[in-house]
Amino acid sequence: MSRTFQIYLISDSTGETLDRIFLALKAQFSNIEYKVHSYSFTRTENQIIKILGNAKKNKNSIILYTIVDNSLAKFLANQSEDKGLPCFGVLGNLILSFSKLLNQKASHEPSGQHVLNEEYYQRIEAIQFTMNHDDGNLLNDVGKSDIVLLGVSRTSKTPTSIYLANKGYKTSNIPLVNENSIPKILKNNPKISCVIGLNTEAERLVDVRKNRMNSLKETDNKKYTNIEKIQEEINEAKKTFKRYGWPTIDVTRKSVEETAASIIKIHEIYTQNNE
To answer: Is 194 found in the same domain as 83?
Structure first.
């Protein structure tokens, strides 16, 4: 009989960091059942007492936390130990090690990564830019983009663009129907921005497009899901990317996060070569 683990994620901020860490952690263990209990903005001992009280009532409870206040983190660890609850601090040892290495005391301020500084407003600007330049819109502005994504339909251009925008990159994405889809500014100056082509395997694209058609309850456009036509699209796209010297990424078995990581690496190389 399989056990369901009760995972308590306790954070003194939004909990975003802890969510991502747990996401990476649980990916390492297959066939394990989890139920996640998330608690953000936990900043008092009373809050901790209530959370641990609930955790104690359940079997197989595990505590993960990101709390930068040392005294509150110690209180949580001690209370968990008293109740026999496995408890793991995600950032504590890392902050301490960095403090020693940098010879500087940490601020221990919750939500330190969410301050409304210049970087924050640049990220907001990047998101607004990306939303305005989605799906081939405002092509005259494409030269203002940090990154331009080109690809045939349903190659995850929009979700990848939004992910990059949240990282602070102004991103335009352009559906590649044929070479006429490419704006003149890119044809005349292919290196005006970091342009990257997205490609995928034809079989995978058939499935994605069929699901898209089903969700829209459309059945008329047979060419859109015809594997021979799709293979032609992909081949033409590859030729176009090669003609203009644009790097390409095969997104067939990549998550948006993995694709974005590859794009950011290409952008770093592009920036170094154009300094």
So the answer is: no
CA quadruple 29, 30, 31, 32: dihedral positive or negative?
positive
- Same domain for 149 and 253, yes or no, is yes
Indicate whether 91 pLDDT > 80. no
**219 and 98 housed in the same domain:** no
Residues of the domain holding 8 = 4-114
Residue 245, pLDDT score: 95
What's the token pair of residue 152?
Answer: 């045939």
pLDDT of residue 107: 60
What's this model's pTM, rounded to 2 decimal places?
Answer: 0.66
Residues 95, 166 within the same domain = no
Q: What is the mean pLDDT of the chain?
A: 88
pLDDT in tens, 23-77: 888 888 888 899 999 999 999 999 999 999 999 999 999 999 999 888 999 999 9
